[in-house]
């Protein structure tokens, strides 16, 4: 798996993006895309129709859910949204007597141990770990 950031370049009426050199890329690739996301089978093994079906059934709905949670939390950046969606939510108890003010709780992820501040007033008690994407429900 890899992630990278590239600058698209104009090529004819389209735009090109170079693929990382380490990837296996066949003579022909298949692509499925929305106006924002792109899924490419660089082996070209899957037909573009099959890929589009998978894209519409699995990728786009998961992406929309993930994007929605991200908007709710403000700073949500999971690396494994798909995995998170399949994971049963963990729970974290807020210590009693925690004084209200800005309701920022110090949350420690039960899966990866990542620590981050969580604003309950802004984001509610359902969140995703900022590091591993695990769904977490705060017990308030
Ligand atoms: Zn985590």
Keyphrases for this structure?
three-stranded mixed β-sheet, elongated, alpha+beta, 26% helix, two-stranded antiparallel sheet, single chain, 2 domains, 140 residues, binds zinc ion
Question: Rg, please?
Answer: 19 Å
**Percentage of residues in DSSP E strands:** 25-35%
Order of helices and strands: EEEEHHEEEHEE
Number of domains: 2
- Which stretches of 5+ consecutive residues score pLDDT under 50? none
Which term fits the overall shape?
Answer: elongated
Counting DSSP E segments of at least 2 residues, the number of strands comes to 9
User: What fraction, in percent, of the residue positions are helical?
Assistant: 25-40%
How do the helices and strands line up, and which of them pair or pack?
Elements: E1 9-11, E2 14-16, E3 30-33, E4 38-41, H1 48-73, H2 81-86, E5 90-93, E6 104-108, E7 115-119, H3 120-123, E8 126-128, E9 135-139
This protein binds zinc ion.
What does this structure look like?
The protein has 140 residues and is an alpha+beta fold. The protein has two domains: 51 residues; 66 residues, no CATH class. The protein is built from three helices and nine strands. Strands 5-9-8 form a three-stranded mixed β-sheet, with no helix packed on it. A hairpin with a 2-residue loop joins strand 1 and strand 2. The longest helix is centred in the middle third of the chain and has 26 residues. The protein is elongated and about 65 Å long. It starts with 8 loop residues before the first strand and ends with a strand. The mean pLDDT is 82. Bound molecules: zinc ion. Zinc ion binds next to loops.
